[in-house]
Amino acid sequence: xxxxxLIGNLTRDPELRYTPEGxxxxxxxxxxxxxxxxxxxEREADFIPVVVWQKRAExxxxxxxxxxxxxxxxxxxxxxxxxxxxxxxxxxxVVAYRVEFLxxxxxxxxxxxxxxxxxxxxxxVPSPEPEEPSSKPEEKDDIPFGE
Length: 147
Fold this sequence. Notes:
Layout: E1 4-10, E2 15-18, E3 24-37, E4 43-53, H1 54-63, E5 69-82, E6 88-101
Parallel strand pairs: 4-6
Antiparallel strand pairs: 1-3, 1-5, 2-3, 3-4, 5-6
């Protein structure tokens, strides 16, 4: 079984590229804190390269940025390649099947949508309704759910 699950923060913005066939591929590095501290009392981190393919790659590039916290589910891949100087290199990376955005999205949904031109129904975000003033005083122990 080859499965990796990581939770960490991006060390840089995702980089989107395309294969000669037009398939999108994004890469980024996730810093994952270790569960212990070193002799100096500092928490260390591992920096793990992640590769994401196709639509997931485009979505990650669109919404994630340096510092974004993510959960990555994938497999470990070790591959060899020859760099531009002709030197044979070996790299270990996680090929992600799933990337969950845990915080800090680059694009935030707008609370107000201009009524001029809305091209897609999914882009509409309803404005919150104003609250009516309550006739009874609030108590600190009240649960803020519907009555």
